[in-house]
Design a protein that fits this description.
By secondary structure, the chain is α+β, with helices and mostly antiparallel strands. The protein contains 25 helices and 18 strands. It has five domains: 4-100, Alpha-Beta Complex (DNA Primase, Chain A); 133-246, DNA primase, catalytic core, N-terminal domain (DNA primase DNAg catalytic core, N-terminal domain, Alpha-Beta Complex); 255-370, Dna Topoisomerase Vi A Subunit, Chain: A, domain 2 (3-Layer(aba) Sandwich); 386-443, no CATH class; 457-585, DNAb Helicase, Chain A (Orthogonal Bundle), CATH 1.10.860. The protein has a five-stranded antiparallel beta sheet. The chain has a five-stranded mixed beta sheet with strand order 15-14-16-17-18, with helices on both faces. The protein is globular and about 100 Å long.
Length: 586
């Protein structure tokens, strides 16, 4: 459906959503007074500073400052765009997203419709191509070659179906003949990486003579493909290029299938190839993912750590495998926090997960995973192997090489243990070295604490209104400050109007009205402000703040009339008004 998502729909969606229930489904919360708390999912900490308020329908971390409503949480935690977060929240609540075309100019509406339609068309076309490849595995004239290959790798039809595995014959235009019915579709297929622009402007199939593995995003939409050649041709694996819907550094092959197969995932194994993922699933290890031909990126690691508490990187034992493991470890260091672990498994020479699980079976392979090397041991063993620990110079070199990796780790028990383990290798002088490692880096020392918010009547009124929108009912009318010219009052007036017209609105809904507006940052800061006004006295303090602002309005009006009086410009009505104002102030 075209059009912007309607404001009313967003308000209703937030009203339907219990933020405590939503966050608890991803981050276990514990009751703490009237709120709930947990260790922050957005930074590493030892004691909980992440607070979720059921009254405000708002979360806030007192450590790193992250805050927001249910939509914001999905955007940050699940790494979704705003519209995707709305759609995800709507799906959770079992409702359809409603859009309102009246909120857009005709030009905005046209561009938005184009963008949304393009996205929809892209996903639809990729899904159709995936089904075509699957159909070809059953109907192509040379299908037996592909089927025999898969059977030779030990795969059953059930697993092939679960992963949507397909096939494309070795023709230049096998897929194009089916889908490129006009020039627009040809262009779209090129844009989506499914075709390559030929010398004479005639596109041809990118994938030919290959077993096809569809790559799905976290919502199950086909966004790209990997193709495994059946002959001795090169490359052995051919992957979709970056496109407008596929960004390989942010996706993981098999993650959608792993989450679908396991309602309560606690462990994920990162392997190198599509066939490794599928072969492991064939043997009951249905929690493997692949990093799509790249080193495991920080974005992929962040997704992994937000999905499970244990990640095992399983690589070949050769030099390339160990280098890949080192890059993954380096990318993971800033993301490591207590309660999650990154481990490493290196397979014997000439073996990969596919071959090993076929030879030894599920139980033996899982025993290998259970004995995976922890990150700390992997880091220290690799660094120690590079120096001469029998000499002072070697030990000094080890300390120097280790410092950058220690600095990348957030404060955690792991970091403290790693420092102590390193110090133990130095014997005498180890304590001094530990103290050196535990010193704050210049960047950490320069980190500024949030400045306390200065108390003013406007800020206090806004903060209290954000917490208790029903306070607006204690005013004679919501427009009492309409004519006061003072910083912050226009924002307060807008809030009063919103609260008056939406009697049951909550804090999370209010801040959503100001998303992508500069005022939204001010509001979220004030919503997180610890002003020390208890609920019992909130109404009195709110009314007192409004009264102070009304007094300012009177003073402002009096000064305006006095200025006109000095210039002999008062009307009869204004003279009478001025006299009344002066009498009230005397």
């Amino acid at each position: 459906m075209a059009g912007l998502i309607s404001r009313q729909f967003i308000d209703d969606l937030l009203a339907r959503t219990d933020i405590v229930e939503l966050i608890n489904s991803r981050v276990p919360l514990k009751k703490a007074g009237k709120n709930y708390q947990a260790c922050c999912p957005f930074h590493t900490e030892k004691t909980p500073s992440f607070s979720v308020s059921p009254d405000k329908q708002f979360y806030h971390c007192f450590g790193c400052g992250e805050h927001g409503n249910a939509i914001s949480f999905l955007m940050e935690y699940d790494r979704l765009e705003f519209v995707d977060a709305i759609e995800e929240l709507a799906s959770i609540n079992g409702v359809e997203v409603e859009r309102d075309e009246r909120q857009q100019t005709p030009e905005q509406q046209r561009k938005y419709q184009q963008a949304q339609q393009q996205k929809q068309d892209d996903y639809q076309l990729m899904e159709q191509i995936a089904r075509f490849y699957q159909q070809q595995l059953r109907a192509a004239t040379d299908k037996d070659t592909a089927i025999n290959y898969l059977k030779g790798r030990g795969l059953t039809g059930e697993v092939a179906k679960r992963f949507g595995i397909g096939y494309i014959s070795d023709n230049w235009d096998g897929m194009m003949n089916i889908f490129a019915k006009n020039n627009n579709l040809s262009r779209q297929l090129v844009d989506l990486g499914m075709a390559i622009e030929g010398d004479k402007g005639r596109p041809y199939d990118r994938f030919r003579g290959r077993i096809m593995f569809p790559i799905r995003d976290r919502r199950g939409r086909v966004i790209g493909f990997g193709g495994r050649v059946l002959t001795d041709g090169t490359p052995k694996y051919l992957n979709s290029p970056e496109t407008r819907i596929y960004h390989k550094g942010q996706e993981l092959y098999g993650l959608f299938e792993a989450k679908k197969a396991n309602k309560n995932l606690t462990r994920l194994v990162v392997v190198e190839g599509y066939m490794d993922v599928v072969a492991l699933a064939q043997h009951g290890i249905d929690y493997a993912v692949a990093s799509l031909g790249t080193s495991t990126t920080p974005e992929q690691l962040q997704t992994l750590f937000r999905t499970v508490t244990e990640v095992i990187c399983c690589y070949d034992g050769d030099r390339a495998g160990r280098e890949a493991a080192w890059r993954a470890m380096d990318n993971a260091l800033p993301l490591i926090r207590d309660g999650i672990s990154l481990k490493f498994v290196f397979l014997p020479d000439g073996e990969d997960p596919d071959s090993l699980v076929r030879q030894q079976g599920q139980q033996a392979f899982e025993q290998i995973l259970d004995q995976a090397q922890p990150l700390s041991k992997f880091l220290l063993e690799n660094l120690i192997a590079k120096v001469d620990m029998t000499s002072i110079e070697g030990k000094a070199s080890l300390a120097e090489q280790t410092q950058p990796y220690i600095n990348k780790l957030p404060e955690s028990i792991l970091k403290d243990s790693l420092i102590n383990e390193l110090a133990n290798n130095f014997g005498a002088g180890g304590e001094q070295l530990a103290k050196q490692f535990q010193q704050k880096t210049p960047a950490q020392q320069a980190a500024k604490n949030n400045k306390p918010t200065r108390t003013t009547p406007v800020r206090l009124a806004i903060a209290l209104l954000l917490e208790k929108p029903e306070l607006v009912s204690s005013l004679p009318n919501a427009g009492v400050l309409a004519h006061l010219n003072r910083p912050g009052v226009p924002l307060l007036n807008e809030l009063l109007e919103i609260c008056a017209s939406n009697p049951n609105i909550n804090s999370g809904q209010i801040v959503e009205h100001f998303r992508q507006r500069e005022e939204g940052k001010q509001l979220t800061k004030l919503l997180c402000w610890e002003h020390q006004i208890d609920a019992e006295h909130a109404e009195d303090v709110f009314l007192d703040s409004i009264e102070k602002l009304l007094n300012s309005l009177v003073e402002q009006r009096t000064e305006f009339l006095l200025q006109k009086a000095r210039l002999n410009q008062l009307t009869i009505e204004e003279k009478q008004e001025l006299q009344l104002l002066l009498n009230e102030q005397s």
